[in-house]
Amino acid sequence: MWPPSLIEPVFRPPSEASSLILQLTLGCSWNRCTYCAMYRSKDFGIRPVKEVIEEVRSAAGVPGIRRVFLADGDALAAPFEVLAEVLAEIKERLPEVQRVGIYGDSRSILKLGTERLSRLKDLGLGIIYFGPETGDEATLKAVIKGATVERQLEAARVVREAEIKLSMMALLGLAGVEGSERHARATGRFIAAAQPTYAAALTVTLVPGTEMHDVWESGAFQLPDRWGMLQELQWMLEEMEDYRGPFHANHASNYLPLKLRLPRDRESAIALIREVLESRDEGRLRPEWSRGL
Ligand code: SF4
Questions:
Q1: 204 belongs to a structural domain
Q2: The total number of structural domains that make up the chain
Q3: Ligand 1 centroid, distance to 261 Cα (angstroms)
Q4: pLDDT tens digits for range 149-170
Q5: DSSP structure string for 37-50
Q6: What is each CA distance from 145 to 31, 124, 238, 266, 292, in whole angstroms?
Q7: Which atom of ligand 1 is nearest to the CA of 36?
Q8: Which CATH number does the domain housing residue 273 bear?
Q9: Which residues line ligand 1 (CB under 6 A)?
Q10: CA of 254 relative to ligand 1 center, distance in Å
Q11: 292 pLDDT exceeds 60?
């Protein structure tokens, strides 16, 4: 069957826009974060490996497939044997594929460990997209991330040791107005300590049906406004002196799109944010209607 039929909703990182998407799992193995509604409509499950293998085989000979993304979130929660079998099939049947990407959380990364991840790397796993979201312990707890800062840092270390590229996402606004500075600075320090291959900051969006949205509606949680989000980005960057690599805050959810290489662009980006914050010039921010949420 070509192309493989996908069970919606399907999410993938922007950098996987032209990848062949194969669903190894359905839904999210955790599915409890208070701000996330991505997979609420799906029960987590691992698809029969035979079906996925059939999809790989159906792609053999299709021109232009250079990248494969294994969905849903997090497909890395599938058993090692399943991951290895699917990767081996991709390697054999789709020799032009240069990189296989996957979402993975700290639980699945740590469950696999360095040695098995290294074996998956040899079979073609090239990049893990990991969203620790914050480096602040209290915020992790409040949003029910199901992980500690230490575990998330350990997960980053394990991926680095396995020599797999690590793309790390943080979420501006996650601690609300009250925990804003604490979350932003702790997250900047976390990224600097974790040293991912790529780092990105997105902006939290309140999604109806989530616990965070309910608490916001009750008035017990306030989201920073656009200036507050920008202030968080400044605080985050101030703590990222030791991070070396690309840092993108240009996602459609962000108010001031920035695409930086650190440490080279850090000082100038901080100066730019300061200037925009002082100007309070709405014209310099991405208008609300154009934020692709
Ligand atoms: S944020 Fe990630 S880990 Fe949390 S529920 Fe959503 S998909 Fe699952």
A1: yes
A2: 1
A3: 27
A4: 999 999 999 999 999 999 999 9
A5: -TTTTS--EEPPHH
A6: 9, 29, 25, 29, 24
A7: 6
A8: 3.20.20.70
A9: 28, 30-33, 36, 38-39, 73, 105, 131
A10: 19
A11: no
